[in-house]
Amino acid sequence: DIDVIYVDPGRAGYFWPGRHVCYCDGCRNGFRKATGMELPWHEGDTGYTPAELATIERYHAWYQDTLVEIVRQVRKLVKSYKDIPLIYNINNPQGMAREDPRVFEAMDAFLYERGNSILERAEGVSLARAAGLGVWPYVGEYNNWPRVIYNGFDFQQQIFTTAMFGGAPILALPWGYVSHAANRRFVEYPFGMLKQHEREFAGFRNYPYAAVVYGYRTPPGHAQSGTWWTTNVRMSSLGAFAACLYGHVQVSSIDESLLDDIQKLRAYQVLYLADSPYLSEAHIANIKQFVREGGGLVVSYGSSLFDQAGNRQGRFALEELVRAVPIEPAGELAETLASYRSMTGGPYDLYLADRSRPSLENVTPLWSFQPVKVLDGGEVWKDIVTGDGLRPILPGVIVSSYGKGRVVYCASALESLFLQQNSSAVGGLLKSLVAKAAPEPPPYEVQAPAALITNLTVKDDTLVLHMTNWTGNKLERAGANEYYLAPVENVRIRLIVPKGKRVQQVGLLLTAPYRKEQKGRTLTVLIPRVEAYQALRVDLK
Predict the structure, then answer these.
(1) For the whole prediction, is pTM greater than 0.70?
(2) What pLDDT is recorded for position 44?
(3) To 10 degrees, what angle do helices 118-130 and 233-246 make?
(4) How far is CA 376 from the centre of its chain?
C-alpha cells in the first residue's frame, strides 16, 4: 500500500546547539566501539583542546557515515519489496551543493520545503530535473502564516509553474481546503487540470537549450553595493535565469556538479556562467571541451577569477576562452573612472554601447564591472562608454572563438541589476549575449509580456510548450498574495520543427481558439487569449 518512502534530513548536528554532539548511549557507545575514543564534553561549550576538537570532527564523520549506511540499507530493503521512489529533504536548491553526494546515490527524488517566488520555484525545479532527479516542492509559504483563507492566485500559479518545469506540487498544510469551498478552487482547478492532462506531463523532460549554473557562494569582499543596487553571486545567477525566463529563452538551472560530466553538458547549446567565482581544473577542462566541440559560452564579471579558498587571482582561469585579462586602472583611466559612476542617472553615468554604432537609442545601463583589456583573439562587441558623448573607455563585452564554439564575456554584473530593477534594456542585453554565443537558433520564440512564463518539454516525438500567466505579481515579495490575474492577449509562438521531423498534429491542452500556419520548418501559432495557464502540444513524425 506504500507508494513512497520519505526521509527527512540526516546530517550530523541538524538543529543541534553548541558543538553539535549527541551524548546518548547510542552515540557514546557506538563512537567508542568504532574508534576507541571517548566523546569530550565541557560545560559552557568552552575549553576544548585541539585534540578534543579533532575528536569531535571525527565523531561528525562517523555519525554521517552511520546515517549514510542507514539510508543505503533502507533503500536496499525497500527495493527488495517494491520499486518505489525514496525522497529526501534538501530544503532548497542550495542544499544540493551542501549535501553528502552519497545521499544522492541512494535517492530518487527530493523535497523542496521552500519555493519562494515563481522565479525561484522555476529555477529550483529545473535544477533538480537537470540533475536527473524528481522533485516535490511545497506550494505556498512554509512558515507561520500559511492561512488557507488568504491564499489565492499565488497558490494556483505555483502549482502550474511547478508542474510545467517537471516537479510534483504538494501542499504543506492542505487541511483547510477540505472544507473551505471558496478558496478550494485555487487548488481544485490546477490539480484537476493536471489530472486530466497527465499524459502531457508524465515522462516529459525539459528541453535543453541554455543552462545557467546555479551559484550562491560569494567570496569575501566580492559583493558590491551602490546607492540603490547590490550584487553578489546568488543575485547574479538568479538574475541570469530571470533574464532568460522573462525573455522567453528556453532555460534550465544546473548544479555546478554537472560541470563534472561532459556528456550532460553536451545536451545544451549555451552554458551561462553568471559570476561563477571558482571553477575547478576538471570543470575548466570540460567547459573547454564543450566550447571546442561547438557549444556556446556566456561568462560575466568575476567568473573564474577566484581560487577555491575565495582568494582573488590576477587572471581569469578561463582566460584562454574569454580572451580578456583584469587590469588595475591607472593614470588618465583611473582619473576618468573616479569621475564617473554606474547608475547615477546623468551625463557622468556609464553605459554599454555597440562599438559599431553607439547611440543613446541602444545603450545599456552599466552596473558593477571588472576593468579588463582585450587579448589577441578577442573582439570588442560593446564598449563601456561615458554618458557625455558616449566616449569609449574600456571593453564591455568581448566575443571570441574557441574551436567550433563561441564565447561571450561581459565585464559587468548586469544579471544582478536586472534581478533588482527589471530593466528591459538590461534584460534585452543579457538575452542578446545568449543569442550571440548560441550555435543554433532557439527552439521557439514567443511574443508576449514577460509575465507569461514558458517552458518547452519533450517526450519521444511530442513537444509541449507550457505557458503560465503571472501578471498578478511577477516581481514578487515573500508572503504577498494576489487576488486578480489579468489575461495575456495575442500570444504569438514561432516553433522550429526539428530537422528530419514534420508536424503531424497541433493542439492546445485547454480548449481555446487559435490559428496556426507553417512555412518550411517554422510553425507559427497565435493564441488570442491566455488566462491562468495554457500549453501548445505538437506531435511530430
Answers:
(1) yes
(2) 84
(3) 90
(4) 33
